[in-house]
DNA sequence: GTTCAATTGTAAATTAGCTGACATTTTGCT
DNA sequence: AGCAAAATGTCAGCTAATTTACAATTGAAC
């Protein structure tokens, strides 16, 4: 029954829908499970054998540390997202780790080499996977060109719109987002200083565009952003 | 013999090294050839059937036009690079075109659907291709995080180093680059204003770091950048 | 050779946003 | 409850780089 559970955990991701039961089982044999709670740090890049991870529950942020010890948020991973060495290529110089943002997370993982084997035997999956990586690339390109050509305000608005679309609960024109990020996190994501982010958020609050607190963000009218 | 030629054209790219003659021939049947000269604009995103392109000779820039009609340089493609819908996914809302930078270019292309068929029959190629797309993604990530966290000067230095490494002719510590870009192009690539780029380049010239003209750039000592 | 457009050079004014430096509030913890 | 740590609020410089504005140079076309 444990096997069964794992099966469904993987099956859930749209990438694996096309796989037969036995194929998933093959991956499952080496599938690892992990639970973690808020604030915990999960190392995944170096040391261990290269793995691909699937976040089953909760939210995490991928943080990179540069030579000066500065932390930068690379990515926010949500329930259902894959992360890790998606390029099937290991690079060890990469100092990245994941930090748990929600109360707790469930992560399932498998070895990159096993996945590669599976892709070899499953060309359709290989194509789906390529498209998946491509989509990811397109998203990254998009958000980066936002970062570069737009000012901080526009970037914040765009970020909030994206966030609302991905995770918000809609209620007419109003959208409610469960807020698991600090203002500092938000600032890092939109690449600005914490102070600027605070200012902009307060400005939006006085303009009745949204109401902000540490639990949730309510956007009064998403069409006005 | 025309067939033969095309074979070698494709064969040249390291992605296709693992393919058999017949497999390449299969692609070649639908391979298109194109020649174009300086300043010419090549549309490749919309209208036509989705294709993947391989630049065999010369240099082009990929330019995107936003809603306000502003042009941004998305990418510089060099001899041997693939471009087009590398993600195997068409998106039509994308307003992109290529502009020829060198005196003339040779481009060879094939249909995305044919390539997809080939990938299906060739899992090894599929994996290579996935890794290739992944590598591209990693490069993009890298250059973007440069754009975001570094100042204009550092960005210019990094760009020149990259350019020199890719295309420069080394002579001891000195490197000569054939300059097919205007200062405005360079400015756009490193995401700054034309004036700032000009200033920085002149500053480098007075500091004897390089000599610049419209034909070539000579970096006196690449290790000093 | 002359003309015109593109490219390059230079400088002052303006500005978005960062830094640093605090005060205040909230949260988790024992 | 009471404390420390984390998160938020606010403000005054400061700075890199954009904008605006124009001059000078180069190159290609006729």
UniProtKB/TrEMBL annotation, chains A, B:
The keyword Transcription regulation applies. CDD domains: CAP_ED. The keyword Cell membrane does not apply. Keywords: DNA-binding, Transcription, Transcription regulation. Residues 15-119 form the Cyclic nucleotide-binding domain. InterPro entries: cNMP-bd_dom, cNMP-bd_dom_sf, Env_Response_Regulators, HTH_CRP, RmlC-like_jellyroll, WH-like_DNA-bd_sf, WH_DNA-bd_sf. This is Crp/Fnr family transcriptional regulator.
């Amino acid at each position: 029954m444990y096997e069964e559970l794992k099966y469904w955990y993987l099956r859930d991701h749209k990438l694996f829908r096309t796989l037969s039961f036995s194929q998933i089982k093959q991956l499952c044999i080496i599938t690892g499970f992990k639970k973690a709670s808020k604030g915990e740090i999960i190392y995944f890049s170096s040391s261990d054998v290269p793995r691909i991870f699937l976040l089953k529950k909760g939210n995490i942020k991928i943080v990179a540390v540069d030579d000066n010890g500065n932390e930068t948020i690379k990515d926010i991973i949500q329930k259902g997202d894959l992360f890790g060495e998606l390029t099937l290529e290991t690079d060890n110089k990469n100092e990245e780790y994941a930090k748990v943002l929600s109360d707790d997370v469930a992560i399932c993982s498998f070895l990159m080499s096993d996945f590669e084997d599976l892709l070899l035997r499953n060309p359709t999956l290989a194509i789906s996977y390529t498209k998946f990586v491509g989509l990811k690339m397109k998203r990254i390109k998009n958000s980066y060109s936002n970062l570069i050509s737009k000012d901080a305000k526009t970037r914040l608005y765009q970020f909030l719109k994206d966030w609302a679309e991905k995770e918000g609960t809609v209620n007419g024109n109003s959208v409610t987002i469960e807020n698991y990020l600090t203002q500092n996190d938000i600032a890092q994501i939109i690449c600005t200083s914490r102070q600027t982010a605070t200012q902009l958020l307060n400005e939006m609050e006085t303009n009745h565009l949204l109401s902000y607190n540490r639990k949730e963000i309510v956007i009064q009218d998403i069409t006005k952003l």
